[in-house]
């Protein structure tokens, strides 16, 4: 394994950028952005932190290959392929749907980085969590369960949550310097890890990026001490569903980038920042607050959009 890179990925000097935007200044609100997107040119954002616990477990128990699941534009698949390439282990990506004649840029990158891609039907993909499916999958791939560590889709689960406890320390963040912390939420694992690393006095807002995410709060709560308060899942900013956009979202992303110079993606960070923008304008964020937003990366996925 590339120990030098492993240590670099676990450093604690990621940039925390203050942005003085007009819509914040009107309410005397300070906004800092933790730039996880600057962690590495290919192993970017929160996906590293969700993976690292799984990889530590895999290495400690002698697994040579990491296998996981995702779609054609999956940030998780992209980051896992990059981790395998740069750190020195084999990777397999089980991809939802039939193989297209022209692969997405994400999957082209994954293959370039050495990941073995295996496509399954959408019907079969829905069974990916079952023991029967996984046993058949390994048989189809011709690999042994003793060699392959299976990482849940998105890098979620207890090991993913544990890795995300290191996100705030990565920027040497003292959570009590802020009244609120905002971040995008797909599975809720990153949100759970951040909640576990902050005191209850700091409000944590996870912005769900998919439609019908009322289940997410329950999933997050499973990883927290019973009765833990000071957090919530915002479910009104999905813009039609996972990977969906609206003209207002795309316009906001352009506006934000022009004013701040910070790129956002329309799947995760754009929706998170749109939610924060709305909360500021409606008074849900009190005037005079100091806010931290976590830029969770995902910019490679923005290549699938025109805006």
Automatic annotation (TrEMBL):
Residues 74-297 form the Tryptophan synthase beta chain-like PALP domain. Gene3D superfamilies: 3.40.50.1100. Keywords: Lyase, Pyridoxal phosphate. The active site is at 74 (nucleophile). The modification N6-(pyridoxal phosphate)lysine is found at residue 47. It comes from the Bacteria. Its cofactor is pyridoxal 5'-phosphate. The keyword Lyase applies. Belongs to the ACC deaminase/D-cysteine desulfhydrase family. This is D-cysteine desulfhydrase. It comes from Parendozoicomonas haliclonae.
